[in-house]
Amino acid sequence: MGDDRGFQKHEPALSLDYFSYDALLAEIRLRRAREDFNTQRSLTAEGSLRSKANKFTKFNQNKQQGLKTDAKKEPTPPHLEATMKLNKLLNDNLVAVASLPPATSSPAPAPTPSPTEPPTEEPAKRLFYCGYQDIGEVAAKTIFADYQVIGSFVQKCRTNGCHAKTNDVLLFGMHGRCGDFKDNHSLLMERFQGKVLFLNGESFGNANQISPESSDRIYQLGPYMEQQSWQKHTMHVYFLVLAFYKLPSDKRQAILDPAKKPRNTGTKPAVAYFASNCVDFRQQAATEIAKILPLHYVKGCRISSNGTMAEMVPKNIGMSGAYANDDIYKDYKYCLVMENTNYPGYITEKILNAYVGGCIPIYYGTTEIFDLFHKDSFIFYNISDPQPALQQLQRLEENAMEYMRMLYKTPVLASPEVLEKYFSLSDDIGGGSLKKRIREMMDIPFSS
Questions:
Q1: Which residues form the Fucosyltransferase C-terminal domain (predicted)?
Q2: What phi and psi values does residue 164 have, to the nearest 5 degrees?
Q3: Which end of the chain is more exposed for a tag (fewer CB within 10 A), N or C?
Q4: What is the per-residue burial (b if ≥16 Cβ within 10 Å, else e) of 213-234?
């Protein structure tokens, strides 16, 4: 605050004896100004007000003196003169204060936002299994990774269908256990009001058992394209592709890069024969191959001409070991992996396990196999004309360099486009193209 004495030492004390009423009012306003302003700007304003007050005092004194010398002039009535002077003083003060920069003040508080309605949450999308659980898990982790997995439909939803909504999905693995619904798909559709995706694997399909009014909720992935009215809800997917995603990521590399195949130990220079369905053409092929190389088998399919009869694996291996055959194959130079039948679209995990195990596959099945795998990466055994395959097997046995080239140098896949077209169930393979096509077929958008 300014020093009051510095402003007053040359002036008389404030009193009505010396100052007029108007001048005294000006002095009072000056003191209030000193108290209210404590910055350089307030001092400037204070000096301006002081100057105006001094001028007004001098004017008042001159006015008083003029009244004494000009007796003839009629004076202004005191009450009017005081009013005029007070108005002038107030106007001058207003002008002075208006010329000052605005005082700094705290910013006004931000307006409180008006309450809004909470965002509408997207209904939870739930996923149920029924039948083959292992294949269902593959679909859950790839095609439906954005879904909440509930589990077994039979165990959790036998009576009330878990109050399924239209955006819920049931994965039905054909030939697997599904309680009362395994052979009664109409009952299944009655209990479950969401969408059902049949993972047919090796079957001919099962949507033909469904009533027409439920067909709009039925979809199929499998090897066969049924000529039905609901064909637009069916997509051809090789069973082999689902089996590919059952493999650990390091084993998948054997398919993507032949150099990453496990090194064959060669401890058993023989052919591994792993089958439980002893179809005639496969048994006959095993018999012919055993004339060139020893043939080791496991499970129930044996041949009378096999002289080794060696056990390849522990006794406890069963059907669940189909995805673990590669652990057996790693010790063998060749693997007999013939399909149960030759039918368009039917390619199972058998040849896949041979590649991953590090042996050369001896394959029979649909010629669509050449669309997937390089023709020089396996031996195609034509049961109608087996001699070319048997001769190729004999040449490989006589030429170790040729065998190594075929095993580790030849690409496994027929072309780079194979991954995107057939195997792209996950985003890291082919950009997830196959997964996106399946979701589009089912009219299920991805979560944002």
A1: 270-405
A2: -60, 140
A3: C
A4: ebbebbbbbbbbebeeebeebb
d(CA 229, CA 208): 9
Average pLDDT of the residues in 92-118: 53
Q: pLDDT for 207-220, tens place per residue?
A: 555 555 567 888 88
**Contact criterion met (CB below 8 Å) for 444 and 169:** yes
What's the DSSP call for residue 77? P
Q: How confident is the model at residue 275 (pLDDT cuts 50, 70, 90)?
A: confident
Phi, psi of 363 (to 5 degrees): -120, 145
Task: List CB contacts of 19: < 8 A, sequence separation 6 or more.
Answer: 27, 57
Paired with 373 in beta bridges are 413
Q: How many residues does the chain have?
A: 448
| pLDDT of amino acid 3 | 43
- The pLDDT value recorded for residue 430 is 92
* % of the chain exceeding 70 in pLDDT: 55
246-419 fold: Rossmann fold (3.40.50)
Domain ranges of the chain: 1-63, 126-239+433-441, 246-419
CA distance 410 to 417: 17
Over the stretch 376-421, which tens digit does the pLDDT of each residue have? 999 999 999 999 999 999 999 999 999 999 998 899 999 999 999 9
Domains 126-239+433-441 and 246-419 share a fold: yes
The yes or no reply on domain 126-239+433-441 and CATH 3.40.50 is: yes
* Cα-based torsion angle of the residue sequence 4, 5, 11, 14 in order, rounded to the nearest 10 degrees: 50
